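Justification of resources, computational component.

The compute hours requested in this renewal are based largely on the per-chain cost of generating structure records like the one below. Each record pairs the submitted sequence with a full structure-token output. That output is archived, and it is also reused by downstream analysis tasks.
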Amino acid sequence: MLKVGVLGAGHLGKIHLRLLNESLKYELIGFYDADEINGKDVAAEFGYTYYDNINDLIHAADVVDIVTPTLSHFDCAQKAMKKGKHIFIEKPITNTLEEAEELLILEKEYNVKGQVGHVERFNPAFTAVKNQIDNPMFIETHRLAEFNPRGTDVPVVLDLMIHDIDAILSVVNSDVKQINASGVSVISKSPDIANARIEFVNGCVANLTASRISLKNMRKSRFFQQDAYISVDFLEKKVEVVKMKDAPTDPGEFDMVLQNAEGEKKQIYFENPKIEANNAILDELETFADAIQNDTEPVVSLKQGTQALRIALQIIDSF
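The structure output for this chain reads:
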């Protein structure tokens, strides 16, 4: 089992602590929190070992799980990596692109592995259809959330939209050609609503909308490709898959057949992929353990996390 220590015991940090404590792939040695009062309170409530010195925790661990505010991601990560420790780091990978690129250098220099916490990659609705998303040419995403002061220290692009940016980059095998975006600040000092249009070299276009001041929550993505439409509801964990194939010469009474202007007939049919219930956060943590043990590339590598941050910052710059 890999010895793991957690940096940060806030809302998400406590979730990580609980899951790592339950995991059969890790041995939770304890956690560090910069707020000593909070650290001692969490230790007293849950029984985890509290380290009052970050260096002591890093020294004792094989893997360091970084669940601190984004501004401190780089500092925590480089401390761990320079000690030869593997890192799991919450999204966004770092506060700046320069910091993320420095982590890529440290990853090679110290021969360690890193994974970024883009948890939607492990959403069971997405994993159920990801292999069917093949060369999509138009993608539309909506990620809307009710207002929550937690996370408003960064633009909504880094808080919410970056989930969809990462998911899109994982299925579109092409470089980005152009980005156009707009953002509006309503309550926060940084944009609370944003829309971005990403054009890829291969012709694919992605239209992304994110808001953290909506009246209801929504996390939906729609993928349009030749002969298929795939809808993923990340919130409800549901999918819709609508496909087309050449219509039979003698269609049945209930077959749905469309004819285009050229006279070609296509049959529409529906697929219902099986969605396996899971805990996405536990899955991302445990697949990282597998990557370390088997010496394979993590599902969401530091390089991929850096690319998602690069696109997110380009969107912010285009406001």
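The mean pLDDT is 95. The longest strand covers residues 176-184.
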